[in-house]
Design brief:
The complex is a heterodimer of chains A (271) and B (96). Chain A is an alpha/beta fold and 271 residues long. In chain A, helix 1 packs across helix 13. In chain A, 41% of the residues lie in helices and 16% in strands. Chain B has four helices and two strands; from the N terminus they run H-H-H-E-E-H. The longest helix of chain B is centred in the first third of the chain and has 18 residues. The chains are: A alpha/beta (271), B alpha+beta (96).
Chain lengths: 271, 96
Amino acid sequence: MAKVLVVTSGKGGVGKTTSTAAIGAELAKAGKKVVVVDFDIGLRNLDLVMGAERRVVFDLINVVQGVSKLSQALIRDKRLETLWLLPASQTRDKDALNEEGVGRVISELRETYDWIICDSPAGIERGAMLAMRFADEAIIVTNPEVSSVRDSDRIIGMLDAKTVKAENGERVNKHILITRYDPARAARGEMISIDDILEILATPLLGIIPESQDVLRASNVGSPVTLNNPASTPARAYSDATRRLLGETIAMMVPAERKGLINLLLGRRAA
Amino acid sequence: MSMFRLFSNRRPMPVPASAPIARERLQILLAHERGLRGQPDLLMLLREEILSVVSRHVALDPEKVMVRMERGRNVSTLEVDIELPNGFEPALAATG
């Protein structure tokens, strides 16, 4: 049965689009039929991170407004057979989205795909509301930092109140994904701890993605990090998170600081 | 001596960990924000009602009514500051 997953956060710049691309690709590698949908109308970026920016013809707004057919707007990934992208419009604004139209597109996608991943815009306005509206599952992307945790709490409140599931007395299945985790700062006690975040947000953890150059490198070349460098630390963390999403039990790895050889030899602690 | 210090466990000035402060501030803040979620703005409501009660007895300038809330971990305080014009007593006597 099709699952609608929203990747959301409230705060901007925490890694929603990176995570959507990485998890979407990983699910497709596992043989699932996946579509990633960009809800960030006017500021689309999922196409760029996926490396499909030059193949966009029609977009979500065109489909919602009946200008084009869904099949005309969907872009198939060049690397993975079962991965598709539904891009956002770059020229319109979020008011061009309406609930009835989005609902229609989501139901149509449900007929064909195993996973429909909605990449939410930042904020709590119309675009973010509609991205979560029809969700069965939610990934709340959180950085270990006070403003991000506060915004995540707000978004969790909205997932519990303003989704179709919530209004029908059901629950959206929520997961926290911690991104941009910096082991060195954690060791110095400068970063709010993962245990504290989970206690405050009272939501289970899906994975911890370390801050990494590999993520930047992957977006530079337009490839999800799980495809661009599957052996890298962030890619392995995304892979574990994806398997947990599919119901597997995998021990949680907290990214550790890599000590330089010199520091190891001298027995220096992480300062 | 200086060579020894160069290779020993040399650490920078100890800085107190700020993460516990972040946790504490978030816990206090979110406890309040969750309580207020989905409700009309409590302070606006209090201000309106206090204003209407007081102005039943005293003629006052709505601009001179301040309602402020201070949030603490165990207790919160509500501060109401109403500036009364001089010579308000007759109005009080008239209604009383």
